[in-house]
Design brief:
Elements lengths: L10 H10 L6 H12 L3 E5 L2 H12 L5 E5 L4 H10 L2 E5 L21 E5 L20 E5 L7 H4 L7 E5 L12 E5 L2 H14 L5 H17 L2 H16 L28 H12 L1 H19 L14 E5 L2 H13 L20 H9 E5 L6 H18 L4 E2 L12 H7 L1
Helix pairs in contact: 1-7, 2-9, 3-4, 3-6, 10-13
Length: 416
């Protein structure tokens, strides 16, 4: 079974680093490696991306601040804004893309903030920023699904931050935590001081449990083990098929504070995070090659260039009535997929029609560094056969600025 995501390191490397991890590693050393790698003045280790969003808003904005947030993103982003006490303003996605559109009932002011969630690894540039949000006083580049580069850091103004995640399913999985990246010395000093207040005291038992969890979770994503473990997990937790439901929690009410707000890293986490900094060029190159393999097999006529960025998944658009059926068929053929993200509960679909459509159409295909090309070929064959059998069309997502008609897979194959 091919997992929907998998760490960029193998089990042998992880065990080796686990043995080395018995020697102390310091947060400051990992931060320095990342700051040097990205040529950004300050890289601050944080327990999670949601923690970084919440605390950075608390530092840089007032209680009267409005935070503009995409409707099409992970629910923990909205959780972080609400925990900060700031006003949350959802915005719709682009009609022909997955990033946030510029439609708003009023323009942002210098007292407001905007969270730019770069879903699947798509990037915002100044020219892509919605007009209504250009004047926002603070921009948070949510790069949890990305591999950051030096060019990404050049976008940051002094009042901006970028956030990277080392959590499960991310391209830079290291078992725990993330980074807040900034040019602002005061922000960096405040975040480190606040982190000292928020992190629970170190406990040997907790560190052993965290390392064991990392080892077990990585082993569970070995293809030979994945299907059994995933099936058991999903049936125990949801009592339903492992193919249909995803773990996106509802965000109608704030959940209890989880360990994502208070647990620090172990030496193993810090060692893996440091190693990832040294290997970003390789990670980006491999993911670009796998991306091109999907493009070539699914959309051979595509004129969209291979992105310079590394993506977390390869997303396609599938008619909503058929998406879960296709997902189930891929599972039966040994390919697991994801359906990120759920539409925010309690919101009206007509208020955010594009985000609502994305949440029912996007199917995210696996894209991890050691993914066999044969697995991509199998997934693409299943998708092509499914489209022909059901007489439906699929299409790729569109890059920012690219407005094209959908490329019809079935039409091309029928003509051939």
């Amino acid at each position: 079974m091919i997992p929907r995501h998998r760490p960029s390191f193998g089990m042998g490397h992880l065990v080796y680093q686990f043995l080395l991890g018995m020697f102390p590693a310091k947060i400051e050393a990992a931060e320095e490696i990342w700051a040097t790698r990205l040529k950004v003045p300050h890289a601050i280790w944080v327990p999670s991306g949601r923690y970084a969003i919440c605390r950075s808003l608390e530092f840089a904005t007032s209680d009267e601040c409005t935070v503009y947030t995409p409707a099409f993103t992970c629910g923990v982003v909205r959780e972080a804004v609400r925990r900060s006490g700031r006003r949350l303003k959802l915005m719709d996605s682009e009609q022909n893309g997955l990033l946030m559109s510029g439609n708003a009932d009023r323009s942002a002011t210098r007292h407001d903030a905007v969270i730019l969630s770069e879903v699947y690894g798509l990037r915002y540039s100044d020219s892509d920023l919605p007009t209504a949000l250009i004047d926002a006083g603070m921009r948070i580049f949510d790069m949890a699904m990305s591999v950051p580069t030096q060019n990404d850091m050049q976008r940051l103004r002094k009042s901006d931050v970028a956030i990277v995640s080392f959590g499960l399913g991310k391209p830079l999985y290291a078992g725990w935590g993330g980074l807040l990246l900034t040019h602002d010395q005061q922000m960096a000093d405040w975040m480190r001081a606040q982190r000292c207040i928020d992190l629970a005291p170190k406990r040997l038992v907790r560190s052993i449990r965290q390392n064991a969890e990392l080892l077990l979770r990585s082993a569970a994503h070995v293809p030979a083990c994945y299907a059994l473990i995933r099936t058991l997990q999903d049936r125990l937790r949801r009592g339903s098929s492992p193919v249909i439901a995803d773990g996106n929690s509802a965000d109608d009410q704030l959940p209890p504070m989880s360990r994502d707000w208070s647990h620090g890293p172990t030496s193993l986490h810090l060692t893996l995070a440091s190693n990832l900094a040294r290997g970003t060029d390789r990670i980006i190159s491999q993911r670009r090659q796998l991306f091109r393999s999907y493009e070539t097999l699914l959309f051979p006529d595509s004129s969209v260039p291979v992105p310079d960025a590394a993506f977390s998944h390869y997303p396609i658009r599938v008619p909503g009535l058929h998406r879960d059926t296709l997902r189930a068929e891929l599972w039966e053929n040994g390919i697991d997929t994801a359906t990120l993200f759920e539409f925010p509960r309690g919101e009206r679909p007509e208020s955010f029609p594009n985000a609502h459509r994305h949440s029912h159409e996007i199917l995210a295909l696996p894209l991890w560094n050691s993914l066999p090309v044969q697995a991509i070929a199998t997934a693409c064959r299943v998708i092509r056969d499914f489209c022909l059998k059901n007489q439906i069309s699929i299409s790729p997502f569109h890059w920012p600025g690219e407005i094209e008609s959908d490329r019809k897979l079935v039409d091309r194959q029928s003509a051939a």
